Sequence to fold (83 residues):
Amino acid sequence: MNGNMIRIVRILRGFSQRELGDRVGCSDVLIAYMENGKRSVTPSMNARIRSELGLTDDDVRELDELSQSLNRGNILGNIPRYE
Fold:
């Protein structure tokens, strides 16, 4: 899970950075750094965050696919971009 995915799901679940940090045993500052890409998400932190946010492997896979589609700019399929 990357930082953007963490931020999106955290917000959708209604957690503040502080609340999520408290639940996974770190500071809100570290959550902010991970969300902004200033710190890497370690495998152990990834597992704790996924658990607290209630994400399954399938959920993460779907979020990753969505993220990749957004990065490629083709989330809407063949609809032409406005330029």
